[in-house]
Structure formats: structure tokens, C-alpha cells
Amino acid sequence: MSVLTRPPGGASYPTSPTARSTWRGSRIIVLLGLVIVLVAVAGVLFGPEPGPSRPLDPDDTTLAGSKALAEVLRSRGVTVDRVDSVEAAAAKATTGNRLLLITDTLYFDEYDLTRIQSDRLIVGEVPGLDVLAPGVHSEPGSVRTRSREPECALPAARAAGSAYLGGATFSGPSGATGCYPAGDGYALVSFPQAGGVTTVVGDGGFMTNQRLAEDGNAALALNLIGTGRPVTWLVRPATPPPIAELPGERGKSMEDLMPESIRWTVYMSLIALIVTAFWRGRRLGPVVTEKLPVVVRAAETVEGRGRLYRARRARQRAAESLREGTIDRLTPRLGLGSGAGPNEVVAALAARTGQDAHQVGAALYGPPPADDAGLVGLAGYLDFIERQVSEL
Region Disordered: start and end of each range (predicted)? Predict the structure, then answer.
């Protein structure tokens, strides 16, 4: 409540804060807050949209990316080179002994990758695994990804302890070491071969930004990758190459895989298509509109159909037409669906009109009339029922 004071002149004024004085004192703060809110909303609405997630990409900061692992490796003095082509990976291999980390081979030729002499770490059941890791076989099905114990003598796995692994499982060749058993195989298989040591893991979840800090995931990833040698990290290209340039069997393109006679087959097919279109198309003339010589009224059509029914003594067909038309018109008025059965229609109609249910059922679904008089009586009764429903 405002307290009024009276100055010597006789006028009174409030000494406590009023709404007007409060607004004058705080309007700058309110306006500044509104400006901040508007700028934030505009930034959300008109700002650039975040790019799609790139799983196991060393430059991706989303939960599925591996930016955190790449930064940890660089902080330990390991050079991490991200490449998205076989040519770039081969060029890096010429600089010295490196580790080739393969996360995806969908757009790459596995035979070209085998020419790169280095240790390999293959993540997941990638296409061409039988070429990249000879002797490694995938077990049928997949296992749940969870924390697992190594249960093997591989130093990198034993030092890391339990890790978040699963997905595909493998069995290795003779002399291979299997770690993290799951199902009928192992989630990690490592073995030596001519070009170096090849290691295959069933799932790369332990290398992602989301899981790196859990369990022994970081230790396992650093033990497998951070061996002190530079790392060539092969990822899927951001822009897929044209389909015609994708590698086929043993590196052959789509055109190389086609038989030599396919070009002449295509030419002959086009010629046959053109000849067929000319042969069939020239038999059709232009569309011609023709006025009807006489206009037949609807009533005359109904009378003509009735005379045909009478001439052929088709009382059953005439009764079916009358009943079907009545049921189609009454069903929506009774609040029933188009698939309502006879019992539903009869019960609803009897309740709506007060007619005997047996009489209504005989009229709608009973046997056909025995003579013309019965057909006329049926038509009159159906019309009576329909008028009753319409008037209610």
C-alpha cells in the first residue's frame, strides 16, 4: 500500500514504489532479456543444421563418432591421419610403418586394400572380410553388445580388462588368438600374416565418444591403436562415388563385368521396341467424340429393366436388386458400417421402426417371391420401411 505524504504546498504524492516507478527502473533489464531471448530463438531457427552422424569417424563429435579417441591418441604423440579413399591410404603407407584402421569397406575394393603392407585393425563384419583377414570366419547371428572379460593371453586385451564388445563374432585361423568369447566365437580375433598383424573386432562401440570412458574401453582402444606408430584411419567418403565407378568382383567396374555382346543386345532391344510401337500404334486412329442420337431418361431405363425381368420371370434377381438397394441406403442412416451383417441390420431396423424383427428379416433376407404379386408386395414393404426411417 502506498503511503501518501503532504508537502507544504498542499499536494500529496506516494513515498512507496508504484507500478510506474517500478517499470521505469526495470524496463532496461526486461528489454535486454527480451533481446537475448529473440537472438537465441533466431539462432536456433536460422542457424545451420547439424550434419549427419558419421560412426567411428575421428572428426565426428557426436555420440557415434570417435573424435575423443583420436584426440587422446594425438595427445600421446600418435599421428592420426583420416583418409576416405584407398589411394590416400596407400600414399600414407609409403611414409613408413603404419597401422591401417578400417571401419568401412562399402565403397572400397578389398583387393586394393590388401596391397597396403601394414598391420590392420578391422572393425565389424565389413564386406570383403574374407580377403582382408584370410582364415577368419563369421559365426552365424550376432550377440548382444555388453561388458565382457577378455579370457585370453593377448597383452592388449589382458591389460585393458573388461570392455564393451559384442555384435559379430569370429573364429580365427590356426595360430590366431581369440578374446572376449561370445556365443560360439570371439568378439576379437588377432593373428599374424605376411603383411603384419591383423586384428578383427565385432563391434566398434568401445571406440565411440559415448562408450570410450566406460569400463576398459579406452585402454583396449589405446592398446590396439596407440602402439606409437602413425595411424591411417580409413572412413567412408562423405559423398558416395557414382554407381558405375564402384568396385565389383576383383576390382572390376560394372562395365567390365558386362559380357561383350550386351551392347548389341541393348541396340537390338531398342530397335525391336521402336518397330513394335510403330506396328501397334498405327492401327489406332484419333479419338472421335460422337453425340448420342437420343437421350434416354432414367425412368425409361428403370421401366425397361423391369420389363426385361418380367419377360424372363426373373423375380429372384429383381428381389435381390430391390433388397440390395434398400440395405445400401438404410445402412448409413442406421449408423452402421458397410460391413454390417444381417443380424445387425435387422435388429437396428426393428428398433428404429418398431416393426417385427422376423418380418423385417424375411423382407430383407428371406426367400424370393413366388409370383409377381409377392414381388410387388415386397417392393411396397421395402419402400414403406425406408420412408419410415427417413421420416424418423
Answer: 1-20
Q: Which residues, in sequence order, are CB contacts of 83 under 8 Å at separation 6+?
A: 89, 92, 232, 233, 234, 235
In order along the chain (392 residues), what is the average pLDDT of each group of 10 residues? 48 57 68 75 58 82 90 91 90 88 87 89 90 90 90 92 92 92 92 88 92 91 88 84 55 64 84 84 70 77 82 86 89 85 89 88 89 89 89 73
Task: Give yes or no for a contact between 363 and 385, defined as CB atoms under 8 angstroms apart.
Answer: yes
User: Whole-model pTM above 0.70?
Assistant: no
Chain centroid to CA 50: 19
Residue 199, helix vs strand vs coil:
strand
Beta strand segments in 92-204, E:
99-102, 119-123, 137-138, 143-148, 163-167, 170-171, 177-182, 185-193, 196-201
Nearest to 154 by CA among 119, 185, 196, 189: 189
Grid cell, residue 207, equals 571406440
Single-letter residue type at 213 = A
194 DSSP 8-state letter: T
Cβ-based neighbour number of residue 72 at 10 Å = 18
35 backbone dihedrals φ, ψ, rounded to 5°: -65, -45
CB-based contacts of 262-267 (< 8 A; 24+ apart in sequence): none
DSSP code of 30? H
Cα 139 versus chain centre, distance:
27
The three three-digit cell numbers of residue 221, written as one number: 582402444
Cell of 323: 433388397
User: Which residue type is seen at 12?
Assistant: S
